[in-house]
Write a structure and sequence with these properties.
Blueprint lengths: L1 E3 L4 H6 L16 E5 L6 H11 L4 E3 L6 E5 L7 E3 L1
Parallel strand pairs: 3-5
Antiparallel strand pairs: 1-2, 2-4, 3-4
Length: about 80
């Protein structure tokens, strides 16, 4: 279940998204998605992504989602929401 995907900068600002958010990128090798999987525990999903995803992860499990970003300059970057 995708809770947030690409959003143009004006919408990102309206949603109080971070300036320069990965969600504002729309190139093939840059962007972000916030999501969850129905039937899979959010912390289990977040931990799996942490072990397998080489790009950025926002640990949003306490808020009900996982953020996966893809930018070559943000390899293995992690943060908490």
């Amino acid at each position: 279940i995708i809770t947030s995907g690409h959003r143009p900068e004006p919408i990102n600002t309206q949603l109080a998204g971070a300036p320069g958010s990965e969600h504002t990128y729309s190139q093939p090798d840059k962007g972000a998605v916030d999501f969850l999987l129905d039937g899979v525990g959010i912390y289990k999903l977040q931990n799996w992504c942490d072990e397998h995803w080489p790009y950025s992860i926002g640990f949003g499990a306490p808020k009900g989602f996982v953020h996966l970003g893809m930018r070559p300059d943000l390899l293995h970057r992690r943060w908490n929401y």
